[in-house]
Design brief:
The chain has 215 residues and is an all-alpha fold. The protein has one domain: Phosphate transport system protein phou homolog 2, domain 2 (Methane Monooxygenase Hydroxylase, Chain G, domain 1, Up-down Bundle). Helix content is 84%, strand content 0%. The radius of gyration is 19 Å and the shape is globular.
């Protein structure tokens, strides 16, 4: 075990970052669930309500992120490396930002109906986020390596699945959608969603790094 890990075990500290990270993950899960409802909704009023919900969750996510960063600046001993806490928090914040940005474009671009591949991409994103939530809960006991390894594998697979759906969706846009403005609008939403899945993989990579250091 490295010297800094021994010091972290010997010195008194509060487990304040675990609940904050878990709250951040739960908040993103909620946002992904609302996004799934949004992708299936055909009622304009309901869509506005769902987009507002996502915006409120994004604001709550920002509050949690700022709280974590504030605690990092005022806490002498942390549960694991400060850099890893910062990276993980930033990755989670990025996921929620891209969910919020994608949802907002539904109204901004007056998208009336989600193409099937967009619904599929949102579903993949939601599954990846649930896996991340599981991984963050397992951080409390990084010695449960099998559970964490399963999370990493699934998130990486979901990212690959999202890439495939994204590439085919964009190809179909160029081939089947005649209005170039519609192509641009839908492609931007696809990019936001696909980027969110990339950020899930970034978060999983941070978790994997933590596991390597502390297992």
């Amino acid at each position: 075990m490295k010297l800094d890990q021994w010091i972290r075990k010997l010195l008194p500290h509060e487990d304040k970052f675990f609940p904050l990270l878990e709250e951040s993950a739960q908040n993103i899960v909620r946002a992904s669930e609302v996004l799934k409802k949004l992708s299936l909704s055909k009622n304009s009023r309901e869509r506005e309500r769902l987009i507002t919900q996502i915006k409120e969750l994004e604001h709550r996510g920002d509050d949690v992120t700022h709280e974590i960063f504030s605690e990092l600046n005022s806490t002498f001993v942390t549960e694991f490396d400060r850099e890893d806490i910062y990276k993980l928090t930033s990755s989670l914040d990025d996921i929620l930002d891209h969910i919020d940005g994608s949802a907002g474009r539904f109204t901004l671009y007056k998208v009336k109906k989600c193409p099937p591949q967009m619904v599929e991409l949102i579903d993949i994103l939601a599954k990846s986020i649930v896996e991340l939530q599981t991984g963050i809960k397992l951080l409390r006991n990084p010695h449960k390596t099998d559970g964490l390894q399963t999370v990493f594998q699934r998130v990486h697979q979901f990212e690959n699945d999202a890439d495939s759906v994204f590439e085919q969706a964009v190809a179909d846009l160029f081939e089947k959608v005649k209005n170039p403005i519609d192509v641009i609008k839908l492609k931007e939403i696809y990019v936001g969603l696909e980027t969110a899945t990339d950020k899930c993989e970034d978060a999983a990579n941070v978790l994997e790094g933590i596991l390597i250091k502390h297992a």
